[in-house]
Design goal:
Layout (H helix, E strand, L loop, with lengths): L1 H25 L1 H20 L7 H18 L5 H11 L7 H10 L14 E2 L1 H38 L5 H28 L4 E2 L1 H21 L4 H22 L2 H5 L4 H13 L14 H15 L2 H16 L1 H16 L5 H14 L1 H11 L3 H29 L3 H11 L3 H9 L3 H15 L1 H17 L9 H7 L3 H19 L1 H34 L14 H28 L1 H6 L1
Antiparallel strand pairs: 1-2
């Protein structure tokens, strides 16, 4: 009898071990990792062995100039910036197969009054558009030439005084900064003066089939019907394309209403009117798409960029964020007395960490309901659109230093794309600081998911008198976060081995911008579309009683804005002013 019991126990242990092993190819989280890494490896095989022509020679010459100018002047000179521009022109995805591949991964084009132009623009129409932009480009180019002349003259005056006259040095720095801003405007005008004809529809069809087959492979191995998935996927992809189309309209671009908001809105329109067709449902795979996209996002979190911004950025991102997260959660429970703890923590993470990505990871860790995640994402998208327009305008109005403004926006605006866009409204420096702060903050996705999983197992869902096992925490922990972390470490190591210059050319503007960033954008858009298609407004009624979710977000974000600004000012201007001066 005892032998029978032991045999059964051994069988149970074996079954559990086999189940855990089979998770590697049966669970969605792991498939997100495998697909994400397959794409990252493909990008490395395509771009790393194919550098641009004369890359090493151009980098070497530019670095000689940079070293000489850094030793000659106490500020970044005209020649210094020209050398930087020479290096930045080297991009792995700007020629050959890389350029062709990038073309097949792109979205619809921008348009103003005719949506057909988003898909097809004839040579005649492209020529007509270019002619409209030529005059503005010539004007911008003339202003650029004048700005360069002033900058060089001011620099020469400072040099004649051996750079010992602070007034002349400041004048030179100001004129050089004005020249750089004029260059940005000229570059934008140049694009409008050189409009190229396009026909993206065939490329979108190829992309749709490719992405559909990629995800269908995972569905087949997981034991689901790849054919049913693929049929539903075609509809989801079509809706995602419409979201990109709407976001590409010029007015929508101006007001920052991006593809995420449109994807959810279009999905909600269908699901709450005619209803999502049954044949589409197998293709509505929110977590499958977003988790794979998040693994690709991990590849973009490069440690060298975190180090470049220094300790001030780490304080802004890694000290303020957890304080805001915890305080907002406590505020929701103790003051607002929100009935759903999972909704409370999901909104708190969404608002304090980095928007949708953190919300997805947190919702998985605490097992939040689908409608709770949708509500959190919706709030985030609405306030992100508002903040990316209002914050740059406010910063300009009060005359706030652009580095401080960039750090403030990077720590508070939720979406990475919105952060970069808001920073670009101010200046290059603001965009660089804002995007880097957000990248540092993205690292906390994994930390937040792990912390929430531990807290929920030990405090929220625990049974009195029962000991919580680490296996339960492991089961709750979203495994795709491991892929996010692994991708970040792997790409950071590759970047370090390549060096910053080659890394910029072949990693930043090769593997990432040439392949993974575009695909991540599509995966996120597919996920947002799926959220809308799977959501019924009637499920939200009881969540909005008393407006508590909205109050929680507004109060939490207000606290976040105040604390981030204070921390950014202290770190960048009081504790580490030398780092700020070097940016």
């Amino acid at each position: 009898m005892a032998d029978d019991v032991n045999t059964r126990q051994q069988d149970v242990v074996i079954d559990k071990a086999e189940t855990r092993l089979s998770d590697l190819w049966k669970k969605e989280d792991y498939w997100a990792i495998w697909l994400g890494f397959a794409l990252i490896i493909a990008g490395m095989l395509i771009f790393l062995p194919n550098p641009p022509e004369k890359m090493a020679e151009t980098i070497a010459q530019a670095n000689e100039v940079l070293a000489a100018e850094a030793a000659r002047a106490p500020f970044k000179t005209v020649a210094y910036y020209q050398a930087v521009d020479a290096k930045h022109k080297l991009k792995g995805d700007s020629g050959g197969f890389g350029k062709t591949l990038k073309g097949y991964l792109g979205k619809t084009k921008g348009w103003s009054s005719n949506p057909v132009e988003a898909f097809y623009l004839s040579p005649e129409a492209a020529k007509a558009k270019s002619e409209k932009g030529v005059a503005k480009y010539e004007e911008a180019k003339a202003k650029l030439g004048e700005a360069l002349t002033r900058a060089q003259a001011s620099e020469d005056e400072a040099a004649a005084a051996l750079f010992k006259d602070e007034a002349l040095n400041d004048k030179a720095k100001g004129d050089i900064s004005a020249w750089r801003n004029a260059k940005l405007k000229a570059d934008k005008a140049k694009k409008k003066a050189h409009v190229k004809p396009h026909n993206v529809l065939p490329k979108l069809i190829v992309l749709c089939i490719g992405i559909g087959l990629l995800f269908a492979i995972g569905k087949a191995v997981m034991g689901e019907s790849p054919a049913k998935f693929f049929v539903g996927f075609l509809f989801v992809f079509a809706m995602a394309t419409l979201a990109y189309l709407a976001a590409g309209q010029s007015i929508m671009k101006t007001y920052g209403i991006g593809y995420a908001a449109w994807a959810i809105a279009l999905g909600l329109l269908i699901s709450n009117t005619v209803g999502t067709p049954k044949w589409v449902v197998p293709g509505v795979q929110t977590e499958y798409y977003i988790k794979t996209g998040l693994v690709l996002l991990g590849a973009e979190v490069l440690f060298n960029k975190i180090v470049a911004i220094g300790i001030p950025g780490i304080f802004v991102a890694w000290v303020v964020t957890p304080i805001v997260l915890v305080c907002t959660y406590i505020f929701g429970q103790k003051v607002l007395k929100m009935p759903s703890k999972t909704l409370n923590i999901t909104i708190s993470a969404d608002m304090s960490v980095c928007g949708v990505s953190a919300a997805i990871a947190t919702a998985a860790a605490c097992r939040a309901k689908k409608e709770e995640l949708t509500l959190s994402v919706g709030l985030s998208l609405v306030f992100t659109s508002i903040m990316m327009i209002v914050m740059p305008a406010f910063i300009k109005a009060v005359g706030m230093p652009h580095i401080l403004g960039g750090a403030w926006m990077g720590g508070t605006i939720d979406a990475t794309g919105a952060v970069a866009a808001a920073g670009a409204f101010l200046s290059d420096k603001a965009m660089y600081v804002a995007a880097t702060i957000k990248m540092i903050q993205n690292v906390l996705i994994g930390v937040t998911a792990f912390g929430v999983a531990v807290y929920w197992c030990t405090r929220v869902d625990c049974i009195p008198g029962q000991r919580v096992s680490w296996m339960e925490i492991w089961h709750r922990f979203p495994k795709f976060v491991l892929g996010f972390i692994a991708a970040s470490i792997a790409m950071s190591l590759i970047y370090k081995v390549q060096g910053p210059d080659v890394g910029f050319t072949l990693v930043d503007h090769g593997v990432l911008s040439g392949l993974t960033k575009n695909l991540r954008g599509w995966f996120f858009c597919l996920a947002f579309t799926s959220i809308g298609l799977a959501t019924d407004f009637r499920e939200f009624k009881h969540y909005f009683k008393g407006g508590k979710p909205l109050i929680l977000y507004v109060c939490g974000q207000s606290f976040n804005l105040a604390l981030t600004l204070i921390m950014a000012y202290i770190m960048f201007y009081k504790v580490f002013p030398e780092i700020t001066a070097a940016i």
